[in-house]
Amino acid sequence: MGKYVFGVDVGGTTVKLGLFDESGMVLDKWEIPTRTESSGVNILPDIATSIQSKMSEKAIAEEDVAGVGVGAPGPVDGNGIIHKAVNLGWSEMNLKKELTQLLGGMRVEGGNDANVAALGEMWKGGGQGYENLVAVTLGTGVGGGIIINGKIMTGATGSGGEIGHIHVEDEETEACGCGNYGCLEEYASATGITRLANRKLKQSDKDSVLRNGEVSAKAVFDAVKAGDELAIEIAKQFGDYLGKGLAVIAGVINPEIFVIGGGVSKAGEVLFDYIRPSFDKTVFHGCKDTKFALATLGNDAGIYGAAKMVLD
Fold it and tell me: Which helix (H) or strand (E) holds 281?
């Protein structure tokens, strides 16, 4: 195997790239813009050009590169075929094959970005020491990555781990981005927490610091830490939905640990004070000992996981 690995995390705005050695130490990391115009036709060529120029800059020969791992925002099956990436403009294509050709035959491995980030957290982040874990990303949406016996669980079409679309509420009247109603993402994402907060502010006359400025997930948990009663009620609603959702996942996957990341996780361990009671109340008894931890790699989880795919 070569001495070097490249990890690539394709986002809607930027592509993050990392150069690693075979032990998993990051030697360099950088970003390039994601050019999504013209159905994203430039994205893979831009990635190939960026990798080749980095090899040139560092005087790395092709035979010294073990391969390139790529995480992309869409379902990617075990053959490296991506089944549509809406925010990149991609329809179905063979990610592995196309990038391999652009890189002159270099080995390429591909995966869904959330799954790849989960692998990164298992390897070098909040899930170190565990081989069965579920990484939960609480950002604009709710993403998930499932690792079983140290391997990503992709499912038949690469859609395994779409935990944000577990149904948790029958009475919802606003549609989720996926078109369904009452998905976990509608209550546990940053936008979902904001929705819960705005609803609660309309329903209640209670004084709250949340009435004085912009309502956001960060504002809610800052207010929770300050003892704001209304904010605590919102956090309980959020925790109730997420705890139940994770209890369902635990009963199916039986992970050793849930690793919580994404922008909402910046609130810190206070999140667990609200998630854990609902989880403990509803989880199957054989899964009661599931641990919770915060993700530690932040925006670098994707490049770490992508590199790990190649090293595996």
Answer: helix 270-282
